[in-house]
Each structure stands twice: as C-alpha cells, then as structure tokens.
Amino acid sequence: MSAIRHALSVKRADDFAQWYQEVISAADMAEESGVRGCMVIKPWGYGIWERIQRLMDARIKDAGVQNCYFPIFIPLGNFEREASHVEGFAKEMAVVTHHRLISDGKGGLIPDPEAKLEEPLVVRPTSETIIGDAMSRWIQSWRDLPLLTNQWANVVRWEMRTRMFLRTSEFLWQEGHTAHESREDAKAETMRALEMYRACAEEDLALPVIAGEKPENERFPGAEETWSIEAMMQDGKALQAGTSHYLGTNFAHAANIRYQDREGGQQFCHTTSWGVSTRMIGGVIMVHGDDDGLRVPPRIAPYQVVILPMLREDEGDAALLDYCATLKLGLAEQSACGEPVRVLLDSKPGKAAAKRWDWVRKGAPIIVEVGPRDMADGKVAVLRRDRLWTEQGKPDFAFRALGDFVGDACATLEAIQSGLLEQARERRDANITRGVTSVDEVAAFFAEDQRYPGWVEVQWSKPTGAALDRVVEQLKALKLTIRNVPIGAEPADGSCIFTGEPAVERIYVARAY
Amino acid sequence: MSAIRHALSVKRADDFAQWYQEVISAADMAEESGVRGCMVIKPWGYGIWERIQRLMDARIKDAGVQNCYFPIFIPLGNFEREASHVEGFAKEMAVVTHHRLISDGKGGLIPDPEAKLEEPLVVRPTSETIIGDAMSRWIQSWRDLPLLTNQWANVVRWEMRTRMFLRTSEFLWQEGHTAHESREDAKAETMRALEMYRACAEEDLALPVIAGEKPENERFPGAEETWSIEAMMQDGKALQAGTSHYLGTNFAHAANIRYQDREGGQQFCHTTSWGVSTRMIGGVIMVHGDDDGLRVPPRIAPYQVVILPMLREDEGDAALLDYCATLKLGLAEQSACGEPVRVLLDSKPGKAAAKRWDWVRKGAPIIVEVGPRDMADGKVAVLRRDRLWTEQGKPDFAFRALGDFVGDACATLEAIQSGLLEQARERRDANITRGVTSVDEVAAFFAEDQRYPGWVEVQWSKPTGAALDRVVEQLKALKLTIRNVPIGAEPADGSCIFTGEPAVERIYVARAY
Predict the structure, then answer these.
(1) Is the dihedral of CA A337, A339, A344, A345 positive or negative?
(2) CA distances from A277 to A101, A174, A282, B338 (A)
(3) Residue A201 has pLDDT above 60, yes or no
C-alpha cells in the first residue's frame, strides 16, 4: 500500500486543516475573493450547491412550503425589538449607512455625506424580523395558518476568523419561516424540518447525522428550542449541519404576528425557523474526502460519470469522439437515483492521465477512459472513485464491454452512494465512546495523543442557568462543547458527570467546527 | 360585452399604471416591504421567477457557461479603476461602512464607531469589477479561454422612484461574464447571449421582442457596444427586458485580465457581460395581463392547471376529492412543452366561485371546476384563462368528459402558450408606425390624444458626440428615447430625421419604462 502516490500533497492524518484547504483548491471548488471573509464559489463547488438546492427544494415544496423572497436590508429598528435576538445577533453585522458615493476630488470615491441614511440598514444575518413584519401583514385569522414560507438567499455575519464553506462572512442558505396556531403545531413543524434535514443529509449527501436538541446555551437567539443535525468529520470533530428552531411566541410578540382564533379571540402565533447553508459542503468534504481529493456522492455530483477520450490529435480522434458520444448518450438515457445520469464528455485538450487526476481530485464518482484500442475492442476502462487503488497501488481500472458498463452504471452509482454513507456511518459509530462517567475521564480521553478521537456520550442532569454555565465553562476549558441531546437515545440510568445528580438524558460532547 | 363584470376594479384603458399595481396585488405576486425601495416577492410572483430561472439556466448551461458565486461586497477601490464605469455606477449604491452595532445606552442600537471599515464596501450593483479580479487570477494562457461564467444573485442600485418588478433598489438577476481571445470571439458571445434572451423571451415568456443595438448614449458604463431586447407593453411603451454588452478590453485593462497568446505574447482579454432580471416579470404582466388580472404563459406558470373541487363539507367530499386526485394524476402523467404538467388540486376551504376568481386573477392557464354532478357524469368544467368570457359575458366553461380533457390538456396548454405570443406579436406589429420622416411628425404623433400609440420607426444618420446629445435632448423634451437599432431591419433609404443627412440605419423611438 505504501506504493500509492496519492493525488494530494497533504494527508488527512498528517494535517487535517491543511488537507481540507488542499481539497478545496485541488478540486477547484472555491477560493478567497480578496474581499474580507467572502469566498468565490467556483463551478465545481457551486455545481454541488445547485444539486443540494434542487434536492432540498423538492423536499421543502413537498411539505407544502412556498418560496418567497424578502429584502436583503433590515432596518436597524427591527433588531431592537426582540431583546435576546439583539443580544445574539446585533453584534457583527454589515451596516449600510450611505446610499451614494461621490468623488473625493483626488481621483477617489467616498460615501457622500449628503446621502447618509436616517436609519442605518443591516445586511440580513437571518430574516426572522423582516419576515415577521410580512407575517403580521399576511395573517389575520386561523384560516391563514399555518403559513409556510422559505427563501434561498445570501446572508452576512461578520466573522473575524473565516474558513471556506465552514465560516464565511457571506454565505448562501435557505431559511424556512413558519407561523402556526399552537405550540403543538409549531413544534411539529420544527421536527418535520429537522427530519427533512436528516433525510436530505443521509439520503442525498450521504452524511450520517445525529438529530437532537441543542442545550439551552446553544439556542438560537430568541428561540425556545433549537434542534440540530450533527455530523462527525474525519478528524472526529462535530459539524452542526442544519438547525430547526421553535421560537415560541417571542418573535410574534416582537413583530405583532397575531390571528383571530376559532372563538374570535386574538392570539399570538407560534413560529419556527430552520436553515441549512453552504456549510454543508464543508461537511461533504470532511466526511467523504480522502488523500486523493474529494469524493462526491452521486446524488449531489454535478457530473456522475466523466468520459475521457484519449485523443491523439490525429484523424483517429473523430471516430473516438463518436464512440464516446454514443457512450454518453447511452448513459444519459439511464436513470440513477430517480434522475437521468449526468454525464460529461471531457474532450478538452490535454493529456488523458492529467485530466484523469483532475477528475479524481474533484471526486467524480465514475471516470471512464477510452482509447483507440478500447474502441477497437468495444470496451471502456472504468475507474470508481470510491475504489481507486489496487492492492499494488495502481489505479484500479476495470475493462468492461461498453454495453455491460452502460447496463449497470446506474446500479454502480447507487452502490457508490450507499457505500459512502455506510463507510461514514461505520466510522462515526466506531468513534462514539460510551460509558464515560466523569469529567476527568472526558478530559483524559480528549487529551490522549492530542488526537481527536471522536465524540463522547455522557449522561447529565440537564442543569440550567448558572449550573449550566459552569458545565459550559468546564467543557470550554477542554475545548469541548455539548453537541446535542440525541433523539431516540437510551434513557439515562446513571449520574450526571457534571453535577453528580441523577441523570435525565444522554448528550454528545465533542470538539466542533 | 358590456355585461362582463371583470375581476379587477381598474381597466387597462382607464389607468394603466394603477391597473399594473392592481394586477400585482390581486394576483398576490409581490408587495412593498416597508424597506425603502425593496419589495417582498410572494409565492406566485416568486414561482414565476423560479420558472424563468429554470428555463434560462438550462439555456445558459447548454451554451457551456458555468455558474459560480461571487461576493456581494465590492471594495470601493474596484470602482475607481474604470473611469466610465465609475461615472455610470458610482452614484446611487448602498455603502457598508461599519461591521458592528452597539447599544446607544438608551435601549437602541448604533453602528459601532470602533468598527468602522478602513475601506467601505459597496453592495454590488453589478459584478464586472469583482469578477474581473477573479478572471485576472484564473486566466493565464489562451488555453484558458473562452472563460464563460454566470451567477444568479441579488444586486442593489439605490433608486429614488421605484415600481414593483420594474425598478426596485434590490432586484434578482443573472449576470453572465465571459472573457475571450479576440474581439471577434467576444462579439460572437455578445450576440449569442442576445439571441438566447430573444429565444427565452419569445418561447418561454411569450414576449415578442426586438433585438438590436442601443445607441451610444444608452450604453452600459464601460461598454463598447450594448445590445438589448425590447418588448412593447399594452400602453405602447417599451420595456428593455435584457441586455448584452461587448466590453472591449476596457474592464480587462482595469482588472489586468491578460493571457499569453499562441505566439507567447501578452494580450488583454476581450470581455462581455449580459443579464436579465425580475424586471422581466413586469413585462409579462404588462404584455399578457388583461382586465381580469394576470395571464401567465404555461411554460412559466408555477401551476398550469388548477383543479377546484366544489366541496360541500359533507360526506360526499371524499369521493369528489378522489375523483379530483385521479384527474390530477392523469394530468401529471402528461408532458406539455417538454415537462410534466404542473397541476394544483386546490382543496383549501372556501367557496369554489371565490377561489375560481382568485385563480383567474393569478392567471393560471387552465382552471377546472368539479362538482358532484360533474363527477356523476364523468365530466369536468374547463375554463381557459385566455378565453375567459362568452359573448354573453359569462365565464366560458367547456363541459368535457374527463378523459377527453386529460387527453388534449397538453395540446391546449401549448395552444395557450403560442396564442399569447401571437396575440402580443400582432398587437406590437400593429402599433409600430413606419414612414415618419420628421421630428415634428414624431412630436405630433405622440402628442395625439395623450395616448401612447406605440413605437415609431425612423431613419437616422447615427450621429455621435455632441450631435447625438442634441438628438437625445430633442427626444427627451418629447419624453421619448431611442430603443435600439433592430437587427435585420430594412436598409436605410432616406434622410436622417434629426440631421437631414443621408440615413444609415433605422431606429425605434418610444416612450419607455
């Protein structure tokens, strides 16, 4: 195995952070823009986002949620209304103060002092307050409920330390916002959205996730309950990949979202919000990437099969391209995971081997090379991205008759999809440690070898207020956080590792992005 | 005909501007947001935009253009580089000057003086300069060309007077940006994008348009050539519905976009940009709307067929809903305009007649009402939105056997699509006046009855500089503008109506949005 010459210069095991950056650059997914904290998402990275959008959007629409679009600018006053929302969000945001530039007289431009806004506008960090305004206009009676809206948008949260896809000042996301008659209905919607995220993460992105409730200290500012899906990266850290919030009537009070109930009385709505972002792409990289680059699950791969003709820049090329075009057509007529197979015939100039490694680094699920001899034999050379190497450290090409390959390409794609999920699930499950019964044990566990050995499941008494603060501080000293209280876990049967009191539930503790 | 009780309170002929606002509100497409110049796009309006996006995006991808995403913030310095671009854009833009809010000590929030940005950031009004920076990084050699990128994004241009969809401070659009080796290649791309817009406008939106070159005074700031598609609204005014720019090497010089040519020398790239926006939806309203509301062309209708069961809130409802579900399934299995038919079974509570008029105002192409008696007879009552009224002023229902209706629903949708285009084309062609040979005649023509009688085709000598300024001033006094120099017009054969010199081409003169 030591004979393998991997396609990246940095290995996961050697420097995970550096490896992550190299995957993004080697797979040509994104780059720094030169604008503080903002990235440029390049075609391969954006193509993955488009796939995630399409699949998630279908799930959102299936749930009867309707897409809208709300203003990017939120008047400052909106943030002053909901006290804990201010506290949580009114910190690092981009503030628009002027609406015109003028010449500074020296060849440069400055904000025009004459064009100062009376009320500054905030570039949305999230849209509860502006959508709350709309809901207060749209909802009169219980007949208008539930109101189920969503928007796909860019948002800005000024970040001091940024990392591509994981934490950038501007990012792309969807935000669902719903209003309901009762706590019960709103909670059901909160859980529906959470389950939708779980299903999309696992079925589409092949990311095994733990769905559960965040502890009080990690709640969205203004929420009554915050639920998350958490995925384990290959360095053992957790990534919060989506959240769903039950907001109680807090935002309804702030924005005056009221309805006439069935008895004619006035009630405040119970609202929810839920979102996933381009951060998910960071999760895909850190769960499925290997020392050769990214591996994109077929459902979210912009191209599922890439055909590389071995062109020689002679008269033979035309026939070879014809053969490849036939192959492409044959594949595109097949249906994998419910959609036509997405095939690229990459006939750009360049050596086939160099192009092969580009597509390996990008993580195209299946790469097919076709040379004149393959064509003469009616064959193709097939490389599966999830089984790249032979035991001898060579690229593991299978030479298949064209018809045979086309005939089972869809089954292969589906096998790759489920294989990636299974592999990630096994790795995650192997790296969750149970039965840890004291904070010291937790500390010793995470100190060992300076590794990140995964997550630890512990039992606790669910302290609140100052007692919870003490727990958070203890964990913070160990660079750890509580990820969530998993749904469907075994009931607690021991003592709280923090307070010594009888435990009421199990939680996951981990390092996190 | 006077017996018709139309579904809107204002008629096009009585007050076109007021009618436009009423359509938007009655079709529940959008509303004012309370944030200056920004609108909220509601589900029906946004659904139309999603359809336009999907169809246009497919055309963009078919041309080999790849979607990316670039930062919303553009450093001020980027605007200082390209002189005419500054002149044209560096005026009314949203300027971010701070990145944090703090308490004002009185319960309010203010921008934190400690968090003032060293260099203000502009919320993108368009992205030539920031994408130019990326191109300068991405392009080294002629092998990297052409570079074909596009993004779907929100942009902001501070507007003093706004009108929903037509002119808002924030709007949604796509912007294509491409770089090429030669003027010839870049011009070919400029024309390809223009033709793509023409085809999408006519085939998808059923908007007949005139494609042509804008006069020098109407060029995009920094462009060598600006081309547009222009549509005629029902008040005779023109709407510029899309533009495509050949930018020469101006932006390449500003952002240093250079490549090594085939001989090893360094050359500046020739670039293009092209865009269409949510403004197109304003065009759809003003071309296809009538005194009963919007009429959405089937290809861009979020729902093409709306089924309204006449529910009685008794035990009979279940069977009726079953019958309607069968109908829905039968329709969804059909394919119109190359996609499965989009059907809504609207079983929300409410009287069927009230719901019918809601869908008439929204402009769903086909409305199907089904009552218990229809079900008993195996029939449905079909209303075509493009043929709403009988000669007696009643809704023109056709009672059809269910199977017959399902069998020809796709043909009906395609007939509605082409009928809307044909109707708009005939109206436009009937309202273009040719043979006008003096400015006085033009003035008299547009003064007549205070009507907006359409467009006038005149011949001109294509003056430039100060001579063109005089033409623009003359027209401005008449509230007229030059729309474009249509592609494929008859050659000029007369004198310029402005200068008296021999004419070189024909132009359209009109009032415009």
Answers:
(1) positive
(2) 33, 6, 10, 32
(3) yes
Portion 104-163 of B in contact with A at CB < 8 A: 107-111, 120-123, 130, 133-134, 137, 143, 149, 153-154, 156, 158
Mark which residues 7-66 of B lie under 8 Å from A by CB.
31, 33-35, 38-43, 46-47, 49-50, 66
Burial class (CB in 10 A: 0-12, 13-18, 19+), A380: buried
Partner residue opposite A72 with nearest CB, options B99, B100, B170: B170
CATH superfamily of B432-510: C-terminal domain of ProRS (3.30.110.30)
pLDDT at B450: 61
Residues contacting residue A54 through CB under 8 Å, at least 6 positions apart? none
Closest CA to B178 of B140, B232, B222, B131: B131
Q: What is the pLDDT of residues A143-197, one digit of tens each?
A: 999 999 999 999 999 988 899 999 999 999 999 999 999 999 999 999 999 999 9
Q: Give percent helix, percent strand, percent coil of chain A, each to the nearest 5.
A: 35, 30, 35
Query: Could you confirm whether domain B16-94+128-288 is CATH 3.40.50.150?
Result: no
Cβ neighbourhood burial of A426 (10 Å; 0-12, 13-18, 19+): exposed
> Of the candidates B38, B71, B123, which has its C-beta nearest A33's C-beta?
B71
Question: Check: CATH 2.170.150.40 for A303-417?
Answer: no
Tell whether the model's pLDDT for residue A232 goes beyond 60.
yes
Tell me which chain B residues have a C-beta less than 8 angstroms from the C-beta of A98. Answer: 94-95, 97, 120
For the whole model, what pTM was predicted?
Answer: 0.97
Q: Is B73 on the interface with A (CB under 8 A)?
A: yes
CATH architecture of B303-415: 3-Layer(aba) Sandwich (3.40)
Characterize B178-213 residue by residue with b for buried, 16 or more Cβ atoms within 10 angstroms of its Cβ, and e for exposed.
bbbbeeebbbebbbbbbbbbbebbbbbbbbbbbbbb
pLDDT at residue B339, rounded to an integer: 92
Mean pLDDT, residues B124-133: 96
Dump pLDDT digits (tens) for B397-437.
999 999 999 999 999 999 999 999 999 999 999 999 999 99
Confidence of residue B1 (pLDDT cuts 50, 70, 90): very low
pLDDT score at B86:
67
What's the pLDDT at A451?
63
- DSSP conformational letter for A495: B
Shortest distance between the Cα of A11 and any Cα of chain B, in A, equals 26
User: Residue A1 — pLDDT band, cuts 50, 70, 90?
Assistant: very low
**Integer Cα distance of A231 and A234 in angstroms:** 10
Give the closest-approach CA distance of A274 to chain B in angstroms.
Answer: 18
3-class DSSP state for residue A34?
coil
Gap from B254 CA to chain A (nearest CA, Å): 15
CA distance B156 to chain A (A): 9
Residues of A in contact with B38 (CB under 8 A): 71-73
Contacts of B107 in chain A (CB under 8 A): 80
Q: Report the C-alpha gap between B76 and A184 in whole angstroms.
A: 50
The beta-carbon neighbor of A72 closest among B79, B92, B154 is B154
Q: Are strands A305-309 and A366-370 parallel, antiparallel or unpaired?
A: parallel
Domain extents in chain B: 16-94+128-288, 303-415, 432-510
**Strand duo A258-260 + A266-268: pairing:** antiparallel
Does domain A16-76+127-288 match CATH 3.30.930.10?
Answer: yes
Mean pLDDT of chain A: 95
Query: Using one digit for the tens of pLDDT, what is the confidence trace for B301-356?
Result: 999 999 999 999 899 899 999 999 999 999 999 998 889 999 999 998 888 899 99
Whole-complex ipTM:
0.96
Which of A71, A94, A134 is nearest residue B96 as measured by Cβ atoms? A94
